[in-house]
Amino acid sequence: MFNPFRYIADFLHLVSFLILILKIRKTRNCLGLSFRTQEIYLAVFCVRYIDLFMYFVSVYNTSMKLLYISSTVFIIYLMKFKKPYCLSYDSASDDFPHYKFIYTGAAVLALLVHTDLAPFELGWSYSIWLEALAIIPQLHMLQKIKDVENITSNYVGALGVYRFFYIVSWIYKYSLTGDVCWTSLLGGIVQTILYADFLYYYIISLKSGKGMSLGV
Length: 216
Fold this sequence. Notes:
Elements: H1 4-27, H2 35-48, H3 59-80, H4 98-112, H5 119-134, H6 136-145, E1 147-148, H7 150-177, H8 182-208, E2 212-213
Antiparallel strand pairs: 1-2
């Protein structure tokens, strides 16, 4: 079944990676970026795509999975190991206790809301909830900084819009087939809610043409 909203969401997801990589390379720093969020995203993709080379769906599907993983690994490399970019990483501001709240919280949610208790299915459900919560360290960091660089705001904005289109794609699929994955839908809704405040200020900054500043 052709679902145009899914392809739009996939494209926006790739755009978010590109924006982030260009931001780091252009400014030669990673100020305002959360390494912890990128670490969580890598965990999301590794858990979700653990069957990458076990089952083949399509060239497009496999290519997108590899792009997500490789792009995240490259971003982590730039932020943590590649000079001069890694020298500007602000670990003091990137201090959200993600092991305590994100990884544990996602595990609890996966046990409560899942597609199946089979190992692969439970792992997939865990990755959905982990992704839903992954942006929290980044939002926490930006809230402390207050004034957000335009490129950084574009990156987070692209992530928020891509997740919105995934929800639209699930609604579209349901309208055609009557099938709905409640784990994906609920995870997507939670993720969109987390973005809501940021997107509000992001839209205001786009309309005003001024830099973005988060509310208190």
